[in-house]
Amino acid sequence: MKTVFIYEVGIRPWDQIQHTENSEYTTISLLNQDFGSVWKTWRMLASLLTHEWPTIIKWYTTSSPQYSKTHEYQTLKDFSKKSGPKDIFKKNEETLIYSGIKHLNSNPENIDPIDLKVYRVSTTLMLKEKGNQIEQLWHRLSHLKHISTTEDFKSILADNEILSFRFYDSETFGAAQLICHSVHAPKIIDALASLKTDEIPRAGVYKYIHS
Which terminus has fewer CB within 10 Å in the chain: N or C? Predict the structure, then answer.
């Protein structure tokens, strides 16, 4: 089945009951009956956006304090094995929780989705990278244990140039949600139009999934 999208005003994470309808933000959800199909559409969409948002990263948190020195050592060792030269992984000294920023392949076609679907403790971001933006982003988000409220998304989007994505792989559907400042919505809608992606209302989701 062909991927569709849902356009909504505000911050409306798929997995949360509480939303905000603040018109400063927009949520655009890609939806299909399987994750593989929605991931293919996301890669095509992201490829159209890389000209303006060339840096793709994953922010993530370990979500639990590191009380054990042995565990902390192993965590840092694992990071050093898998990290790239621009990646960050540091501890918030107040919460004792580690969080990191991993640079993903700048070509969306070469990104593996396997690690991007843990949406409660990570988010995929597209940036207009400039100066020390990455370091500032880490400091701004280092207090988060989870991404679980609309306020968490407001922290992520404090830099209004950021595009935030989260991915859902369910037994009955696959979804990719883009949450950003509304000023960017027209460009994203234009990109979806160029991909001939149809829009459906939120009320049509159940029928689409079960058709």
Answer: C
Q: 């095509």: which residue's tokens?
A: 44
- Indicate the residue type of 126: M
Model confidence over 62-114: pLDDT tens digits?
987 776 777 787 878 888 888 889 999 999 999 989 999 999 999 999 999 98
- Tell me the domain boundaries of the chain: 4-209
The contacts found for 6-11 with CB under 8 angstroms, 24 or more apart, are: 6/31, 6/199, 6/200, 6/201, 6/202, 6/205, 7/185, 7/189, 7/199, 8/202, 9/182, 11/150, 11/153, 11/154, 11/179
**CA-only gyration radius of the chain, Å:** 17
Contact 91, 98 (CB under 8 A): yes
The vertex-52 CA angle with 16 and 177, nearest 5°, equals 15
pTM here? 0.93
pLDDT digit string, tens, across residues 12-68: 998 888 899 999 999 999 999 999 999 999 999 999 999 999 999 999 999 877 767
Structure tokens at 207: 């029928």
Please, which residues have CB within 8 angstroms of residue 178's CB and are 6 or more apart in sequence? 27, 28, 29, 30, 163, 164, 165, 188
